[in-house]
Amino acid sequence: MDLLPRFIIIDDDKLNNKICTVTLEKISKSINIKTFTDALAGFEYITAQYTHTTFDEPTVLLLDLAMPGMDGWEFLHRFDELDASIKKQIKIYILSSSEDRRDMEKADANPNVTQYLVKPLNKHTVDLITNLAGDTDQ
Description:
Blueprint: E1 6-10, H1 14-27, E2 32-36, H2 39-50, E3 59-63, H3 72-80, H4 84-87, E4 90-96, H5 101-109, E5 113-118, H6 123-133
Parallel strand pairs: 1-2, 1-3, 3-4, 4-5
């Protein structure tokens, strides 16, 4: 599958958002990337953009867990309450610095999470995301 045209990155760490953006742009300059340092702002963007629009390919969401205000777990809880027409357009990948097995298991148990990835994002990880995002069974 070709690299997806849309990524949303939600992480309070501006440096991580920059690393993700640079990594993705090295692979393709035509990618549409939206970054948010505030999870609530990212959630509101998704509900506004995806409520009345249906994209052909899924959007990849890279979501951090540990953030002030709304953390990644609360984001996932709210995301679960969204309409199925929105949820089917977004593939969520946890991108966290936590290597805590409990976080990984909790994310694995969430039906909205495609996979748990450990920072930093790199070309190998992007290739993995691209392959999984093309799998409609995920």
